[in-house]
Amino acid sequence: KRLIACANIFPPHQSLYEWQGEIKNEKETAALFKTTSENFEALRETILKHHSYECPCIMAWGIQHGHPPFLQWIKEQTDIEK
User: Fold this and answer.
1) Where do the H-state alpha helices sit in the chain?
2) For residue 7, what is the enclosing H or E element?
3) How confident is the model at residue 80 (pLDDT cuts 50, 70, 90)?
4) How many Cβ atoms from other residues are within 10 Å of residue 30's Cβ?
5) Angle of CA points 80, 31, 64, to nearest 5°
6) How far apart are CA 41 and CA 21, in angstroms?
């Protein structure tokens, strides 16, 4: 679907959190998806459709500064018209 240019998938790690009144100590795998703000909602919907959690951690950070060729590469890779 070209929603992301790249995914960094981190090794499994321990996560401690409270969920529905219980303290959880679970192994989780985190991922960082590089995309554009225009693709965020479609990516969020895709993650929600396939994720096993009822409430997965999905967050977006705005880019204040970046290496222009890399940012251009992200735009090119996520161009759904390609």
Assistant:
1) 40-50, 68-77
2) strand 6-9
3) confident
4) 12
5) 70
6) 30
Any bridge partners for residue 9, and if so which? 31
pTM beyond 0.70 = yes
Which phi and psi (to 5°) does residue 37 adopt?
A: -65, -30
Tokens 């735009």 correspond to what residue?
75
- Is 90 exceeded by the pLDDT of residue 75? yes
User: How many CA atoms does the CB half-sphere of 44 hold within 13 Å?
Assistant: 11
- Max CA pair span of the chain: 47
pLDDT digit string, tens, across residues 21-72: 999 999 999 999 999 999 999 999 999 999 999 999 999 999 999 999 999 9
**And the tokens for 3?**
């929603």
DSSP letters, 34-53, are E--GGGHHHHHHHHHHH-SS
